[in-house]
Design brief:
Elements (H helix, E strand, L loop, with lengths): L2 E3 L1 H14 L6 E8 L5 E8 L7 E5 L2 E5 L4 H4 L2 E6 L6 E5 L5 E2 L5 E3 L15
Parallel strand pairs: 1-6, 2-5
Antiparallel strand pairs: 2-3, 3-9, 4-5, 6-7, 8-9
Length: 123
Amino acid sequence: MCIQLTEPAVLRLRSLLRSQNLGPSAGVRIRIDDGGCAGLSYDMKLVAQAEPEDRGFESGGVALFVEPASLASLRGVQLDFVEGVMESGFRFSNPSATSTCGCGKSFSTTETCAPEGASCHGN
């Protein structure tokens, strides 16, 4: 499986998908974009259905759609949802990451490097 969801992530994503009324084929589309202070950043959005080229997965009853170009960077990733006093949100744990940004929104592997002057807030 490409991406594993923790139980808190499953519960939060199910809730978000129900609240959006996107229909029976709805799921979460996850991809990797160039950018962020570490070189690559995660992009995640709720969608009514997969794009024709997407690869489909399921974790905890949640449909996950991944574009083919992002598959290698997402292999073995765990997605968690963390709630805290100061900050709540989804957290990616990527075994392929050789470094991560302080903001937790971007990462790099041995094949990527951050562009000079890149900023987490400029994604």
